[in-house]
């Protein structure tokens, strides 16, 4: 993973990510997809399904296609400065990206979900929902965290303002990659994913590293969902700087960060060395 030193002039672009969960034989598991190697954002890295907010996401008819009112979604997101339309669009973007990248449709009707898979490649998401008369399950999508790319991004030359949601995969549906935007997929426990990263079997970006370290404190899907219901999603704006020839990313609670209160468990900084970001004190520091 190559380091970026360009400072983009464009403001962070709104985006949504879905951390899909299930209870596996060894505990909590997380679904990861590998970005296509030619992708201009995190190409070749393993990520949670997600992407930028599209204009059409805020145009979906909430009366026909959502199980909650836009005002309820806005309140659940906990961002008073955000308008209701954009807040609703962020939920729709998360569900759309889950369908496009992992073939999972958050709806109560598994039969409809299978029909959507057969038709989804030739229609827009909104048109598909209208044709199949689908109502999306936004109640199953819970805000988890909000990540804003640093002013000087380290592994891309673009900035995003991404809302991370957590959700259990709907009963009867199997998550897989789409063989277009994502070329591989895998279910792993958070610790196993981080161990694969540490052993250089997969690449992870800092938000995924820190999010997996956060999830490693939970052993079941219910534990994560209960935490999401009871703890407001933290705002994480990493701050980056160069020190002794190395790039450092620090997080709230680090002595070098402008916010003194911790937002996440795990290390408060990552350092770029060996062509990847690592905690200063080694692998086990991820689980502090």
Description:
The strands form 2 sheets. Strands 1, 2, 3, 4, 5, 6, 7 and 8 form an 8-stranded mixed sheet that branches. A 4-stranded antiparallel sheet has the order 9-10-11-12, with no helix packed on it. The chain has 8 helices and 12 strands. Strand 1 (13-24) and strand 2 (27-35) form a beta hairpin. Helix 2 crosses helix 3 and helix 6 packs across helix 7 (206-215). By secondary structure, it is of the alpha+beta class. It has helices at residues 62-65, 70-77, 84-102, 110-119, 125-132, 190-198, 206-215, 221-230, and strands spanning 13-24, 27-35, 46-47, 50-52, 142-148, 160-168, 182-188, 235-236, 239-243, 246-250, 269-273, 276-279. It is globular, with a radius of gyration of 18 Å. Helices cover 27% and strands 24% of the residues.
Protein topology:
Blueprint: E1 13-24, E2 27-35, E3 46-47, E4 50-52, H1 62-65, H2 70-77, H3 84-102, H4 110-119, H5 125-132, E5 142-148, E6 160-168, E7 182-188, H6 190-198, H7 206-215, H8 221-230, E8 235-236, E9 239-243, E10 246-250, E11 269-273, E12 276-279
Parallel strand pairs: 1-6, 5-8
Antiparallel strand pairs: 1-2, 1-4, 2-3, 2-7, 5-6, 9-10, 10-11, 11-12
Helix pairs in contact: 2-3, 6-7
Can you give keywords for this protein?
288 residues; alpha+beta; Nucleoside Triphosphate Pyrophosphohydrolase; eight-stranded mixed β-sheet; 8 helices; 24% strand; globular
């Amino acid at each position: 993973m190559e380091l970026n030193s360009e400072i983009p002039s464009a403001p962070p672009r709104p985006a949504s990510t879905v951390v899909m969960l299930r209870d596996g034989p060894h505990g909590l598991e997380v679904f990861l997809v590998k970005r296509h190697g030619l992708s201009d954002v995190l190409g070749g890295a393993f990520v949670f399904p997600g992407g930028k907010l599209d204009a059409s996401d805020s145009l979906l008819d909430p009366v026909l296609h959502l199980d909650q009112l836009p005002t309820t979604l806005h309140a659940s997101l906990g961002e008073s400065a955000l308008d209701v339309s954009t807040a609703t669009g962020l939920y729709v973007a998360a569900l759309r990206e889950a369908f496009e990248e992992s073939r999972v449709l958050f709806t109560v009707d598994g039969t409809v979900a299978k029909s959507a898979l057969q038709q989804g490649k030739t229609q827009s998401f909104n048109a598909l929902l209208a044709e199949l008369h689908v109502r999306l399950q936004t109640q199953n999508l819970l805000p988890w965290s909000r990540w804003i790319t640093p002013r000087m991004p380290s592994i891309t030359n673009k900035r995003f303002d991404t809302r991370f949601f957590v959700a259990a995969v709907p009963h009867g549906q199997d998550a897989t990659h789409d063989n277009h935007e994502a070329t591989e997929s895998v279910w792993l426990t958070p610790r196993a994913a981080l161990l694969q990263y540490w052993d250089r079997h997969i690449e992870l970006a800092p938000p995924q590293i820190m999010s997996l370290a956060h999830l490693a404190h939970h052993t079941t899907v219910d534990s994560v969902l209960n935490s999401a219901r009871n703890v407001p999603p933290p705002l994480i704006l990493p701050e980056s700087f160069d020190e002794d020839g190395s790039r450092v990313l620090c997080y709230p609670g680090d002595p070098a960060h402008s916010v003194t209160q911790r937002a996440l468990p795990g290390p408060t900084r990552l350092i770029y060395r060996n062509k990847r970001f690592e905690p200063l004190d080694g692998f086990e520091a991820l689980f502090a």
